[in-house]
Ferredoxin
Amino acid sequence: MRVKVDPLVCEANAVCVGIAEEVFDLTDDDELVILQEEVPAALQDKVRHAVRSCPKAALSLEE
């Protein structure tokens, strides 16, 4: 599974960071960084939850 962000849609609300900080982070300039584009099996449920919870639907998954 791979996770991607659309930087034109993302508002850096950090909901995803709160759910899966192992995969998502924010820069000092409030830009979302994906720390692990290839999501490990142990984190896939958390990342799916983060993608569903994004208030701007800026995250997507490729399975």
About this structure: The mean pLDDT is 97. The chain has two helices and four strands.
